[in-house]
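no rush on this but wanted to send it before i forget. theres a chain ive been looking at and ive put its sequence and its fold in token form underneath. please have a look and point out which stretches look like helix strand or loop to you. thanks a lot i owe you, the record is right below:
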Amino acid sequence: MPIHSEAPDRPQAHYQFLAGGCSGFLEILCFHPLDVVKSRMQIQGARPLPGEVFYSGPLDAFAKIYRYEGLSSLWKGIVPPICVETPKRGAKFLMYELFKPYFHFGAPQPTALTHAMAGSLAGTLESFLVNPFELVKITQQANREKHLKTLSVVKYIIKHDGYGIEGLYRGITALVARNAIFHFGFFGFYNAIKDWVPISQDTTSELLQKVIIAGFASSLACLTSVTFDMAKCRIQGPQPVKGEVKYRWTINTIRTTFREEGFRGLFKGLGASIMRVGPGGALLLVSYDYFYEFLKKQNI
């Protein structure tokens, strides 16, 4: 990823926004099925409810979703992220570049902490833009019987729960925590490892090196934030008992999950998350890098 020690000028910001948007769009198209699998596994409890299909792992979830709901079900809920992904990713990378100069802490060049703090702040602000889209996406992904239309879900949520913390912004505290922690590790680990590993002079080796580092950094960041992601999915998804709100607040959701399902319950969906976020994060960071350089060369 290009590292800029100064605040971006207008053309540079233009390239960063476009590069971030293009890379985000590409990543969501390729890895959305894993997001569906992750959400299904995080929503389910320790034991299946009567008549509910239970998933024992990511591969089992893939097979059962395909068998009972069809191939297209693996892309359930893709419309909300597609609608928001391009501007969201663009805005996040732009904010990340803008915030970096404020976190040098006296160092002449950006450090790993600089990248981590800037990424964490950008991810936190991003949460307030994407929470309604995340809520709609989880609602669509959780439904096993049919493909819910995006606008119908939005209208239903607004009509019954409103716009606030009980409605479109349900789960916002869990999303803020997840994004802040994930992006702190995501950008921090990536740049720390990249600066530590000698840069290869061969173009192909350099690309492979970046992919491996980005995938490893994404996986580590996922490990540190998956508990909050699980809490977010449970708060935003359908409640276990209809008409009864079991998961409402982040900390209480984590406590309840730990009490009922043990330590492993806090890491539900980790396998699917790493399968998605590892290669997905690698694709995102590396494609951002190359999209950015391409746009600069083309002077678009």
User: Anything to note?
Assistant: The radius of gyration is 20 Å. The longest helix spans residues 10-43. Residues 10-298 form a domain with the Mitochondrial carrier fold fold (CATH 1.50.40.10). The chain has one domain: 10-298.
